[in-house]
# Entry
Amino acid sequence: MNTMTLWHLNGWEFAALAFAALLVGFSKTAVSGANTVSLAIFAAVLPARASTGVLLPILIAGDVLAVLTYRRHAHWPTLWRLFPAVAAGVVVGTVFLMWADDGIVRTSIGAILLLMAGVTVWRRRQADAEEEPDGVTTRAGRAKARSYGVLGGFTTMVANAGGPVMSMYLLSAGFRKLGFLGTSAFFFLIVNTSKLPFSAGLGLIDADSLLLDAALVLFVVPGAFLGRWAVNRINQRLFEQLVIAATVVGGVQLLVR
# Structure
């Protein structure tokens, strides 16, 4: 099937998805969590359930580029501490998707987007307060890793929206920019890759969706290069404000659709 007619797309809809794919690449190498805007665009243009399956390979392509860029800065003890809880969250999310129809998934994605916007605002206020973060080896740090891991696994499975959750956790654990980017790059590459059999088993990934992915993944690469160029130049505070605003608009649009 021609990728331009897949999902009955017109030119403007494909252009919106292409922009969302470019933003995925940008977010993976510059501002983690910004791809919540991509999530809103995909869920608005495509059927809500199908959008999660189409977006997943695009996210993985962005993860690969991020790992190639920041692979030397990952903190593996943190990753190993998170993975068991994330796996539990992914299983819960898979069970949810087994019975949820498109309307429920669309509403859930909208609610998750608004939740993630609130999480991001709270995260920024915590950063502004400059409180001492919990160490990842303390009891409080381990409890935090488990709670954020389960929530991150569920949100990433249901809506590919684990970015803000993990961003908040890594920042609260005291990670600086390069360590943050390197650790999150490996985290999402491993988690998103592990989601492939679940998504395929639920029928969210098939030959038609992969055809659309093949057309859209070309836009991830320039987005990643743009993010790598901008990471040390971008006004982070202004960009996060724009991302939060766009995420809220996308979430509300899905809830009232």
